[in-house]
Amino acid sequence: MPDIELNEMEISAIGEVANISLGNAATAMGILMHNDIDISVPYVAVKNKGDIVRDQEDQSIITRVDYIKGIQGYSILFLKGEDAKIITDLMMGSDGYGMCYQMELGELHMSAVSECMNQMMGSAATAMGSMLERLVDISTPNTKMMNPGEYLKYEFPEHDKFVEITFDVKIGEIIVTQIVQIYPYILAKAIADLFLIKKEQGEV
Known about the structure:
Layout: H1 8-33, E1 37-39, E2 43-48, H2 49-55, E3 60-69, E4 73-80, H3 81-91, H4 99-102, H5 107-132, E5 137-138, E6 142-146, H6 148-155, E7 161-171, E8 175-184, H7 185-200
Antiparallel strand pairs: 1-7, 2-7, 3-4, 3-5, 3-6, 4-8, 7-8
């Protein structure tokens, strides 16, 4: 099968789906962190595995959710370790720089981030399902702490092309950071095609 690049319309469609989905995710995130959450317009790029391995070098907390209904595939989110400590501290009711922030990154932070991403991606899946007119459901998150590039190399040796969605996240007045979401290329194209069909039919 020939390797067909996403065109501008498809990239725009992925960005539109991500924008609405992540808007819902931000609401869920804000409730967990007792703060207002602002999310930027997402930036969408098609990347080879090697590009991501080169760009994502810092140790991160990585969360994978599988889509178990509505669409097939998975989504991966990368969150910097430092930011994970702040988020955990906020979820525990502190100011972001309390006891949980001062602790070494570990199981507590992984558990908190996993719960946060579960709530976020659940809300995002619901919003995506509304746009695509189908029930979209996700698995329980699988969370690891490691270098994102190494994670992709070892977990997905058969996949070389991904779609990367980067968005800036502002949590109250405490922190501005980035969260990176990655789809396998084939799933991103399927989402774009489904969305464009619905849009052409005047349903979104």
